[in-house]
Design goal:
Distance between the termini of chain A: 33 Å
Oligomer: homotetramer
Number of strands of chain A: 9
Number of helices of chain A: 12
Shape of chain A: globular
Radius of gyration of chain A: 21 Å
Chain lengths: ~325, ~325, ~325, ~325
Amino acid sequence: MMGKFQVRTDLALEAKESCEAEDGQIRGVRVTEQADEKREIYTTTVVIETENGARMMGKPVGTYITLEAPNMSSPDEGYHAEISEALAGHLRGLLKQMAGEQASVLVVGLGNREVTPDALGPEVVGNLQVTRHMIRVYGRISTELQHACEVSAIVPGVMAQTGMETLEIIKGVVDETNPQLVIVIDALAARSTKRLNRTIQITDTGINPGSGVGNHRNAINAETIGVPVIAIGVPTVVDAATIVNDTMEELVEELDRSEGMQQLGGALGTLDHAEKQELIRELISSQLNTMFVTPKDIDETVKYLSYMISESLNQVLFEEEEA
Amino acid sequence: MMGKFQVRTDLALEAKESCEAEDGQIRGVRVTEQADEKREIYTTTVVIETENGARMMGKPVGTYITLEAPNMSSPDEGYHAEISEALAGHLRGLLKQMAGEQASVLVVGLGNREVTPDALGPEVVGNLQVTRHMIRVYGRISTELQHACEVSAIVPGVMAQTGMETLEIIKGVVDETNPQLVIVIDALAARSTKRLNRTIQITDTGINPGSGVGNHRNAINAETIGVPVIAIGVPTVVDAATIVNDTMEELVEELDRSEGMQQLGGALGTLDHAEKQELIRELISSQLNTMFVTPKDIDETVKYLSYMISESLNQVLFEEEEA
Amino acid sequence: MMGKFQVRTDLALEAKESCEAEDGQIRGVRVTEQADEKREIYTTTVVIETENGARMMGKPVGTYITLEAPNMSSPDEGYHAEISEALAGHLRGLLKQMAGEQASVLVVGLGNREVTPDALGPEVVGNLQVTRHMIRVYGRISTELQHACEVSAIVPGVMAQTGMETLEIIKGVVDETNPQLVIVIDALAARSTKRLNRTIQITDTGINPGSGVGNHRNAINAETIGVPVIAIGVPTVVDAATIVNDTMEELVEELDRSEGMQQLGGALGTLDHAEKQELIRELISSQLNTMFVTPKDIDETVKYLSYMISESLNQVLFEEEEA
Amino acid sequence: MMGKFQVRTDLALEAKESCEAEDGQIRGVRVTEQADEKREIYTTTVVIETENGARMMGKPVGTYITLEAPNMSSPDEGYHAEISEALAGHLRGLLKQMAGEQASVLVVGLGNREVTPDALGPEVVGNLQVTRHMIRVYGRISTELQHACEVSAIVPGVMAQTGMETLEIIKGVVDETNPQLVIVIDALAARSTKRLNRTIQITDTGINPGSGVGNHRNAINAETIGVPVIAIGVPTVVDAATIVNDTMEELVEELDRSEGMQQLGGALGTLDHAEKQELIRELISSQLNTMFVTPKDIDETVKYLSYMISESLNQVLFEEEEA
């Protein structure tokens, strides 16, 4: 069922492992996969349908789509045009479902524009076509705006810059301008260097606490702001502590496995997985928990990722009805 | 009374002219001037006390302070430290009056950070000490924060970027976070090149519609957002149409005056001021009305002006009680 | 011959006027015009062939191409793709002529990136595909780089930032890296608001002293740096003094013409054109000479103009031989 | 001799270890330490005097100064003013020695301004007082410029942006403008999170290949550019591979040491240090070698570090003779 994927998403992997544990399925969780070999775009959709599924997965009821494409941050316009379209397809579906035609949409670019790997959200908003003021002044008579959504946008900044939670700013703006839908773009911390800059996660459950490079303290979703929220995230950094932890777990397993180290294997065999983890954590400098790992060409990467996402959003929010 | 001023503020000038017209005073308008020759800082305070005064002056009831200093945008730290202090003195007074001690203050940097002369507000906010999140998490036990105001800050962007009026964004954030006072920083369009980058205007009546480089469409004041508003403005550009108009008025007066042009004098004498103005306006390209004039070193100027203003704000909002 | 043009370039106009003055032609100057009505791109090419022509035109011997397109700074990708192609056509021609196939090219983005209307050069370089380091390390075996030019790029900044003339920096880099050709991109000061952001000037004679928003003090051309120079310029600002002067000349002519002002007409008739100009200049504030006029949406404009030019350059410098 | 230092610099540590190995001293290497307890500034100076010392230390003959201060990137102006002064003292000494009074100095800000932790050099140059053009136009008659150095500055960018080695650009500019001295500012990769953003390294031997966040491929020193070079570096990132390696070494040593793991201790005892290292390296993802680790507040840190360094440079390069 997993077929040709080289990298599994967190959710797909968890779902599969649980499946195997629970005799083939978790009630209330549906996993589907799609491989577009020609375009090299691999899509995993996990739908958590019931509270039971939510409890098992540790995530709220809702839809979680992961697009994976090795060429995602390529400067080549051909490649990222295809990914833009794939992304646009999913967004169009969620948009119709959650808000209908010609909806009023507030796009929020989360993140700190002054920290390169966290600037994805602000850069996407910078390339977005906003229409709300045009529609309010000129109406939809202009053929351009006829079928467009009423798009507004904001870059709330981060708490260190504003002194406020992004939730407070978003809620305030939503209460004042009443959009039907909010789309949030955020840079994420991946759990592995293999996932960096080649995965997009889209969900209709908004932003979860603790996620994002900025480590969001509050959830940003329909419950907290009163309006449905689509979240689009791309991992641009890896958590430093995670990287060290993962590499060290490999060392411990290597030591376990090695023939020339039978004794080691024996000794380590007395520690279970949790105890090994504990040993590792004690060694990880606490400073690492406030740091992240990023590639050197992160400026180029964030630039092309933001073009790809804003292209997608502009297509969906600004398009002709027939398209 | 006017003494040694080379440049009069709009308000002072209007007040004086009205004074002279109305036998020495406008009821409900008080004008005071202060000259600090040593520091080269000239201060004019106009207080509009009654509705009658407001009607005569064309501005709401309130206090209007103009600081003028030739060295305002100098890179020399000595010079702008003195102006920071003078500005801080006025802000401290207004702050105490309008919000009391250790007030919660939202600082709003109006303007488009991507257009150099309009980036003053955003740059001031970039150098501001925000304390709200620290106070909320750690309390005021820390000696540093003991007497500080609870400072939050936001850069709302401009309507072309967000699709929303800045009033909508500010009102939303104010309703959500309930500061006791809002301080707005804005780049203004001066009426004369002589006033550029050397004047600060401070008022307790907020932002008026039509003002600012961005041409604000709504008032931002206690009426519209429910919280008192201090506005700090520095003219960084001159309106293109204004420049042409003013220079041309001078031409017309020159033609009026010139001896070798008696006939001209005679002929133009048949046109009153309004008719001359009309003639000039017909000639000013309509395109000029959407343009502004700015000096070439505007990046350096905005940088030093923003240091000077943020220094001032940090002093006032973060200071020890005794200071 | 001039047909449907609404705006004449400086050169074309001067050439034509001289033509008319000199019984139909200036020896050594050839003017051709091309109108692409469908794409709304109007091209004027002026070739100054001899020293006599250079003297008459006040510009060095060489080729001067002006593309004019009302939609040049449109965000619409369709429009500016067509203009990119037209520009690419001309650049390809000059490149072949001046440097041949797979040439080594240094692209120089003149201007101050911190002053929005002067940031055109730096922004074009920011979106350019540089290949020199890749070719030097990997060779041309890769199909991508097979026919590409060896492209290097630099943003020298302005004298206020570096303390050096851009000529010194460019010459130093050229002497060290020996490119066969230099392409310079610069923001220009237009002589009229009508020409703003809708004209591109391309010349094989490099940069002339006194031109550009930055008011270049030295020529940047084959004589001064030892390598042929293509200059690409787009007017993004209008000189403030020029705007006032032009509008005032219109006033003076209006006064000349007006029926109700016979006497004025008569009086002004005693002043010749030069004397009228003199009168006007005395009235123009000297401060205006260091200022420029720019539209409010200059950030968006410069962004789209730079995409359009970098798209063009990337096509020409990076293309397959057959294309 | 080492006294109260919590963190040893690479050089001091190596020198000390060698000392201990070689019966107390390495011929040709002199190490001195200075502790300013009040200001919390700890200075280590390593002078490599002979080729023998250079061979032992793996660094060229010259002076290597390390300032360490826990408060280096504090926003508190008091703290970083003291460190600026300490830094200025050392720079003044080197400047006098290497170039004399009123020298002509080119300041080079290495690094990629678009990648936050690598933007230190460009940001320092952005706040520098350049004087070369003023001195050339106005001479030194002005009291301000009387004793100032003739300062020029450049931000060469990185190879991915320019296609050129920074050495090529610097050499070209130096050959053209002939400064007597070059000062280079660079962000470095630290070997430990403990050293991040609290150490400044100053050397009169320029930049070594392989150093810096940007991993310089060529040396930038008197040999390669023909003019003496002072290099100022601050570690703003840690190499990702280094962090993992170091933490894993600790794990291996912990396993070695642990009582409950006698067998492990025994088993690992069969591997020498090099073999343990080898095992670790095989496990470190090769991708980590192109990545770096940085703290989340890196924008604030780089901002304050750059103020501190430019303050120092401006003091030294622009000061009155008596000071």
